[in-house]
Amino acid sequence: MSISRRALLATSATLAMPAIARADTTTVEFYFPVAVGGPVTKVIDGFAADFMKENPDVTLKPVYAGNYTDTLTKAVTATKAGQGPQLAVLLSTDAFSLIDDELIVPFDNTADDKAWLAGFYLAFMANGQINGRTWGVPFQRSTIVMYYNKDAFKEAGLDPERAPATWAEHADYASTLTKREGDRVTRWGVQIPATGFTYWLLQAMVSEAGGAMMTDNGTKVTFTDPAVVDALQYWVDLNKVHKAHAPGIVDWGVTPRDFLEGKAAMIWHTTGNLTNIRTNAKFPFGVGMLPAGKRRGSPTGGGNFYAFKGMTPAQQAASGRFLKWVTAPERAAAWGVATGYVATSPAAWQTQTMKDYVAGFPAAAVARDQLQYAVPEFSTHDNQRVVTLLDDELQAALLGTKTVKAALEDAQAGATRILRPFQKS
Amino acid sequence: MRRESLWAWALILPALVMLMAFTHWPAVATLWDSLYSTPRGSRPPVFVGGANFRDLLDDPVFLTVLINNAWYAAVTIPASVALSLLMALSVNTALPGRSLVRMAYFTPTILPMIAVANIWLFFFTPDYGLFDQILSVFGGGRHNWLGQMSTALPAMMAVAVWKEAGFFMIFYLAALQSMPPDLAEVGRLEGSSRWSFFWRVTWPLLMPTTLFVMVNAVINAFRLIDHVVVMTRGGPNNATNLLLYHIYETGFRFWDTAAAATMTVVLLVVLAVIAGLQFGLLGRRAHYR
Hints:
The structure holds two protein chains of two kinds. By secondary structure, chain A is an alpha/beta fold. Chain A is 47% helix and 17% strand. Chain A folds into two domains: 2-142 and 301-375, D-Maltodextrin-Binding Protein, domain 2 (3-Layer(aba) Sandwich), CATH 3.40.190.10; 144-298 and 381-424, D-Maltodextrin-Binding Protein, domain 2 (3-Layer(aba) Sandwich). Chain A has helices at 2-16, 40-54, 68-80, 95-100, 111-117, 122-125, 150-155, 167-177, 198-208, 226-240, 254-260, 274-280, 313-326, 329-339, 346-349, 352-360, 364-370, 383-399, 404-424; strands at residues 26-32, 58-64, 87-91, 104-105, 129-130, 133-134, 137-149, 179-181, 184-191, 264-270, 285-288, 298-308, 374-375. In chain A, helix 9 (198-208) packs across helix 10. Chain B has a single domain, classed as Orthogonal Bundle (MetI-like fold), CATH 1.10.3720. Chain B is built from 13 helices and no strands. In chain B, helix 3 (60-91) runs antiparallel to helix 10 (207-223) and helix 10 runs antiparallel to helix 13 (257-285). The relative contact order of chain B is 0.13.
């Protein structure tokens, strides 16, 4: 509390300072989104104030720009109009599109940079490494975990200290946990949201089935791969066969609420919701790794820092300094504790801040332990368009208007059409 | 004479400049952009003629949103106009607490669409949303209103009708209030029934208002998409995707500006044709005093 108050005071002091006092400084503007609950803006303003105190020659201007999509839209529009920010936090999966539009520059320019970038978890670096260069610096990163209601587990006669470990067990648990009153279901065994990030949840199951949905260079998709078919079939069957998942499409935002209201015993959701659920759950809850099919698996998610073209050398130097500062273990740990995002480097987990946090709240470490099984988030050229198309087809399959096979075949055909221009180069 | 016309031009110049800069020029520029390809990175746009329009026909989502929007317009326009007329007639009588009812009818109009959408988002929430809670009293189960293909678009229509009817009611109410009371007296003396009086006198006299309301309703059916953004983002599987939202997504999420411009041209043409029809058909039946 005292830290943030100090940060706030520092911010207001900076604002009160006459502009002339900072006339000889380098200005670095960065756009950031807020995608999870918690005092994100306050923490970032605090970081900026602290950084400027240590680096009086730099003026840092953090600009809150909405959700991820809004922030991308604003950053791209402003950059195309020649008034873009120097840095922006955008989805790690936007890298291909930003490179294709020639809007960003890579980070690994010197040996010093490369040493710094080697300090992050490899799973978080993968999405930003394209054509042999590094275009994204991990910042607010997440992954999918399972939250479960321990009271519901006890009531159903299951061990509340252990999450289901395999697909079969997971489906069994889900059936056991589903509670009915006559024809009405008062609690569903499991809920996997299918709006907003449908492809992301599917990708978790695809990696568990031992497959992949795209090639590393982002020019081809493999939606008709047997592992993808198995994954979607498993998801559909949770409702159709096991009767343990609500029919139709379950909303991304409603899912944590359903969990908190006791309407769903297990949910699959982002670690970004950890702090929210911890604050609002009126029952003991557990966090588990996602169940294994052929193997364990979960995609990474969340946002990276990107550097935009058109920086002066002074701005480039100042941006580099800021990024190294803000991703330093101590700051990465503080950021993770405040938001629920996964701290991005092994060193951050070795700090006292993080050790204390994990000691008091062991669930926080589940996401870290799951990282060894993590795969990079689905990302291709023209990513937003491919993802939208895939999401639509997945929803059709989940709604039962298309068979699993037909939906995936249509998605494959559509995505191939979108990606054709990128396969030549 | 010449001096006078110069003076007149000078007077309308400010309005003309604004209209040109913010309405006509963008429309022309859109038409121009629809004939070029999307610039990508350092590749500049090239002239492609009608290729963008041909591509639209191959886009299954575009056809879906056209059909969705046609249904959306076909239901929300008559429904909101009929409801607004009904509300206006009901509060035009000497009813106790009349101003309170009028205010209640008008409240949805004052609320911003974003707020309306969030309220309805709660109404539609499965299990503990308002509708499911009411239905559960009568033994109804869980309804995933926004997550089911069959109910998602009707749900969005309900929001639009709820939001718009109050606004249109104000125009009908104003028209009813300005209607001379001696007409009603004559009607009573002549012994005409309330229904035939409405049908033969009130309704024809309301024609100019109806025309105005209809034009607005049509524009809104294609223009108001805030609730789509907040509630469903066009899902599930494009069930609630409307033309303007698809244009926004194509332009500002996919950055396919040429396709977005092409669809905007289609939207402009659709609106122009409907407006032309309305003024042509309804306009002839509207009597202005």
